[in-house]
Amino acid sequence: xxxxxxxxxxxxxxxxxxxxxxxxxxxxxxxxxxxxxxxxxxxxxxxxxxxxxxxxxxxxxxxxxxxxxxxxxxxxxxxxxxxxxxxxxxxxxxxxxxxxxxxxxxxxxxxxxxxxxxxxxxxxxxxxxxxxxxxxxxxxxxxxxxxxxxxxxxxxxxxxxxxxxxxxxxx
Length: 171
Hints:
It is built from 4 helices and 7 strands.
């Protein structure tokens, strides 16, 4: 049964041939030329309530998996467990607090069952440019973190299923 469950979960995370809804948060159709999952470096994982990896999709780069637990811990630390609600989606990329580098942007969604947090879904995509003084963000002459593009602390872009437009527009 566990093998069947893992296969189903991986297939759900992979959604071969289309852009998964969680990826659409990271690459909105009206702001991107993304047409399929093969167009991006994308990770999609599921973790238990403590942030421990349970399973991942087929497109993933395992080197990032180890950071997701720290991403989830930072979200809980900053927002407070009591403020993480069903239908929330949190955007995050801060490499100093559980990310990898500024261009790896994560959309993190808590999953609830009967009011109890049972899992986290993390979708991560590599953004080509997150600001800074040079196109493409990679700045070999960066003297501080500000020259490496925007650092996004844990911030809700959906709260209880409602999109927070000003935050999305800011990013």
